[in-house]
Amino acid sequence: MSSPNRRVLIADDHDVVRRGVRTLLETRSNIHVVGEAATGRMAMELARSARPDIAVIDYSLPELNGLDLTLALKREFPRIEVLLYTMHDREELVLDVLRAGARGFVLKSDTEKHLLAAIDALSIHRPYFSGVISETLLDRFLNSSPNHQATLTHREREVVQLIAEGKINKEIGHILSISVKTVETHRASSMHKLKLRTTAELVRYAVRNNIVQP
């Protein structure tokens, strides 16, 4: 039986990766790439207009990382399938994106057949993980309690990521469509919750907790 037709969105900040994934996926007649995004925020905008069935996303996306993008996509489009296609295989990172709702995980170092197999599986709403996810890791995910690292709200995490990326308050306000005063409020709230005193400490927190990649 042939696989159903599926609309796919690709989000990666490297143009060559997006082109390569698109070229590979378009070898399948049932796959239609409906958009490409270089940032997580652009991916959300495209998802709203193009309504993809599957989102193939990197973890290290500017403005809205793969974890928070997954959370946002699943909150707004519960039936969308999210496939993380990334170079990062740290255990906690994998667990975080699984908890966020991703049902596919393929490393960029894997062969092309894994990416195609993942798309085929997600097309019929079945999960797919390449070899990076061992039975032990799956067992840990299924038996673990929710990650309590994220004491920050979704908006606070967005602000922290943009701060860690070197954006000033005015730029953050423009990106998030909020006032500078609101940015300052979220920044202060985040630092209070995390018991941090300086921007440098906030950046270190963002790196340690996979909000941005070093």
Write the topology of this structure.
Elements: E1 6-11, H1 15-25, E2 31-37, H2 40-50, E3 54-57, H3 66-76, E4 81-86, H4 91-100, E5 104-107, H5 112-123, E6 128-129, H6 135-143, H7 154-164, H8 169-176, H9 180-194, H10 199-208
Parallel strand pairs: 1-2, 1-3, 3-4, 4-5, 5-6
What portion of residues is helical? Answer: 40-55%
- CATH C-level label of the largest domain: Alpha Beta
**Biggest β-sheet, characterized?**
6 strands, parallel
Low-confidence stretches: none
Strand-residue proportion: 5-15%
Let me know the number of strands.
6
Shape: globular
**How many domains is the backbone divided into?**
2
Order of helices and strands: EHEHEHEHEHEHHHHH
Structural class: alpha/beta
> Considering the protein shown, what is the CATH homologous superfamily of the largest domain?
Response regulator
Kindly summarize this structure in a few lines.
With 214 residues, this protein is an alpha/beta fold. It contains ten helices and six strands, in the order βαβαβαβαβαβααααα.
Give your account of this protein's structure.
The protein has 214 residues and is α/β, with parallel strands linked by helices. The chain has two domains: 6-143, 3-Layer(aba) Sandwich (Rossmann fold), CATH 3.40.50; 154-208, Arc Repressor Mutant, subunit A (Orthogonal Bundle), CATH 1.10.10.10. The protein contains ten helices and six strands; from the N terminus they run βαβαβαβαβαβααααα. It has helices at residues 15-25, 40-50, 66-76, 91-100, 112-123, 135-143, 154-164, 169-176, 180-194, 199-208, and strands at 6-11, 31-37, 54-57, 81-86, 104-107, 128-129. A six-stranded parallel β-sheet has the order 2-1-3-4-5-6, with helices on both faces. β5, α5 (112-123) and β6 (128-129) form a beta-alpha-beta unit. α3 (66-76) packs parallel to α4 and α7 (154-164) crosses α9. The longest helix has 15 residues, at 180-194. The protein is globular, with a radius of gyration of 17 Å. The model has no long low-confidence stretch (mean pLDDT 88).
